[in-house]
């Protein structure tokens, strides 16, 4: 009997003994008069057990069976579902095992077995969150996360991702062996083909996004010179995308929290799908992105999208998301690139190829698949390699008398004679050498 039930028994007993009235008993117990009358009737019929609740000690009708609880605990500790948080584990149970339970039920089962949580919950720090952009496409955050996404089944790799600030949707993602410029070119192309061109991109200050010589001197600033751009920065300029560089990770916290969530979930998802290579990971990536967006994306304040499709008059994406190099055009309308000689291929453009003056600095654009184009006055001209003529090596001629013969001294040469011969020394010299000192 609990303290509450004991208090009810004593107060109702005093009413039965006539020490207090029924209204006073109801007031002391903070109950209605009708409820006190029911308690009095049950005490008169059953005694002390009348105040005890009838469901006490009984298992609730909606409670899980012991077998189901044990099954959930075994799956939670198995190698298949290790390192799952409570919410994700409840989703996986419904998806793969057909067990519909709430995350709170999973948490109670885990706590009853004295299993610690995957991550300790810390009180959130008080800060003023930055307000989301009203329209999708106004700001896209990009970053990379180098992690053991496939655990011990493969080497660590980098996940490059782009998230829309207004909706929290992943607009593009790709796995790469490392964080490189080509990976961000592929990421941008994927975003443009799926959604369109955003207004601005938010990134960190990695050397992929900025030039090492972006700090201008006072004289350069007074002369009106602009900061040099990296390969990726030049591509964003041609696309008309504003590039914003964050000075701290906290400034782009939305994508930092995204990687924290993906490291918590996608490692398990890739394990359940049996992925053990970067090629297979990229193959299942669209499915993972779709599931994530359904679970975590939000509706923007303004339903109109700020993503702009690629215009017809704009160059092909292959010629924008590419590597750019500067070369000097030779007198024969040729240029040198990577120790090879190239010329403009005939029929590369339907229009007539304009004459380019010799010694002109021209831009060579190299696509991701290795093709080379000469970029001149907003048009691209394909380049073809000119094989160098094979020159026959001239036979080597030996000069007369260049070969020296070895000189062998005669037998009576002074060099062949020893410096001292005891047999030829005089008698007095031999005696002086043998005499004791």
From TrEMBL:
It comes from the Bacteria. Transmembrane segments: none annotated. GO terms for biological process: DNA integration. InterPro entries: Homeodomain-like_sf (IPR009057), Integrase_cat-core (IPR001584), ISNCY_transpos (IPR047797), RNaseH-like_sf (IPR012337), RNaseH_sf (IPR036397). Residues 130-317 form the Integrase catalytic domain. It holds the Pfam family HTH_29. Residues 116-134 have a biased composition (Basic residues). Signal peptide: none annotated. Residues 116-136, 386-437 are annotated as: Disordered. GO terms for molecular function: nucleic acid binding. PANTHER family: INTEGRASE PROTEIN, TRANSPOSASE RV3428C-RELATED. This is ISNCY family transposase.
